[in-house]
Design goal:
The structure is a single chain. By secondary structure, this protein is of the alpha/beta class. The chain has one domain: FAD/NAD(P)-binding domain (3-Layer(bba) Sandwich), CATH 3.50.50.60. The chain has 10 helices and 18 strands. Strands 5, 6, 12, 13, 14, 15, 16 and 17 form an 8-stranded mixed β-sheet that branches. Strands 1, 2, 8, 9, 10, 11 and 18 form a 7-stranded mixed β-sheet that branches. Strands 3-7-4 form a 3-stranded antiparallel β-sheet. α1 packs parallel to α4.
């Protein structure tokens, strides 16, 4: 790393300079005001929001290990709340180009084997939709285009291998690849570093494992014989929630079960898998007729980002939530919105400290809500009858539905 700090006092200090006068050492001017590690949805949204709020595009470093084309090929499904749509609209990323974003106008919540259900609708809350379902690749492609139009240059593919925080800046060691040079290393400095869409590095991790759910999520795209347009389902089973999100003419399936059950589900052929899905979900959508290739990943709760004077975490770098209610990305976009507003006032530790305080309530509420939904409903205790009845009560009490809908759409404000 090149030392940007001049040597004081100079070796050739004249003799006529009084030695009792303190020498003023100017602050190092970093290469960038803000370096964003991770050009996923939260990271790119933050970069775009910063420019929209007055930060010069050339003072932002957007760093990612993947090219935009590689990220754009990611087929995973994402759930966006109506509040997230408003954030994307603010930076010119809505609608999502020519890619479909399927609206969710109704959310049907039920408990398998128990009386009681709740229905939340967009009409009741006077919004165009409660949320939307799109693909990761479509979203990052749109955000990448917005960043380019705003003049934000991305450093990619580049891997951040180390961080070193000083009083005046943070140094980031990068391992980069270019067409001319297969692999090269360099160091940049930034006044503030934001971790987005990934973790921190080595011993500087801001995550602390709070819970291992003992569940594995099986994900796929499935079709049903009697689909209901724009209605999403959250069905709680003894082993975990089962979500079906409308996406074009299919459903994005997130089926959470014990690791043993998930392994068995992955081993079934397509017809057997669809039959098991029908048994777990019921006949509300008729029969399931098609499934894509399946994937599975274990579930745990990582949260508790502390940050430092010059380093903050947003999105998955700050918290990785259970997929129940689909709140992970939406929480990350709300992180980006608040952080952009504060750093636009000055990329300094004082404004960063305000960010940590202002995001605490929303983060804690969302973490605890999704954690409770993932654990309280996922067992066979006598409490399940009470929880089933609570769903019926929520459906009967409009203010209760309103509170739940507000949290899902906007978080805790």
């Amino acid at each position: 790393m090149t030392d940007l700090t001049p040597e004081f006092p100079p070796k050739d200090t004249p003799d006529d300079v009084p030695h009792d006068v303190p020498h003023v050492v100017p602050d190092c001017v970093p290469d960038y005001d803000i370096a964003i590690c991770g050009a996923g949805p939260a990271g790119m949204a933050l970069a775009a929001l910063l420019v929209k709020r007055g930060v010069a595009a050339g003072r932002i470093a957007l760093i990612d290990a993947r090219t935009l084309q590689q990220a754009g090929n990611d087929p995973r499904s994402l759930a966006l709340s109506y509040g997230s749509r408003q954030i994307l609209d603010d930076i010119g990323c809505w609608p999502l180009g020519h890619s479909a974003a399927t609206a969710i106008n109704e959310i049907h919540v039920s408990r398998r084997g128990q009386f009681g259900r709740s229905m939340i609708t967009s009409d009741e809350h006077k919004v165009p939709a409660l949320g939307y379902v799109t693909r990761y690749g479509a979203l990052v492609a749109e955000l990448g285009g917005a960043c380019e139009r705003l003049g934000i240059a991305a450093l990619r593919p580049a891997l951040v291998t180390a961080l070193r925080e000083t009083e005046h800046h943070v140094a980031l060691d990068l391992a980069e690849e270019t067409a001319a040079v297969p692999s090269q290393s360099r160091t940049i400095t930034a006044a503030i570093v934001v971790q987005a869409e990934g973790g921190l590095f080595g011993e500087q991790s801001v995550k602390s494992m709070l819970r291992d759910y003992g569940q594995t999520a099986v994900i796929a795209q499935v079709r049903a014989s009697r689909p209901i347009a724009h209605r999403a389902y959250e069905r709680f089973t003894d082993e975990g929630p089962l979500a079906l999100l409308p996406q074009e003419d299919e459903y994005a399936l997130v089926w959470c079960a014990t690791a043993h059950t998930a392994e068995a589900l992955m081993a079934l052929d397509d017809s057997q898998f669809l039959q098991r899905l029908g048994q777990a979900f019921g006949s509300r959508l008729g029969t399931f007729t098609h499934t894509s290739r399946r994937a599975a990943f274990p579930l745990g709760l990582n949260a508790g980002a502390q940050g430092t004077a010059r380093i903050a975490a947003i999105g998955n770098a700050a918290q990785t939530l259970h997929p129940v209610a689909g709140q992970g990305l939406n929480l990350g976009l709300r992180d980006a919105t608040v952080l952009a507003r504060l750093l636009a006032q000055g990329a300094n530790p004082l404004n960063l400290a305000q960010f940590h305080g202002q995001r605490e309530k929303d983060r804690n509420t969302t973490v605890h809500l999704t954690d409770a939904m993932a654990t309280l409903f996922a067992n066979q205790s006598p409490l399940q009858a009470v929880l089933g009845a609570s769903l019926a009560a929520i459906d009967l009490v409009s203010p209760a539905r309103g509170v739940l809908a507000e949290l899902m759409m906007y978080g805790r404000r």
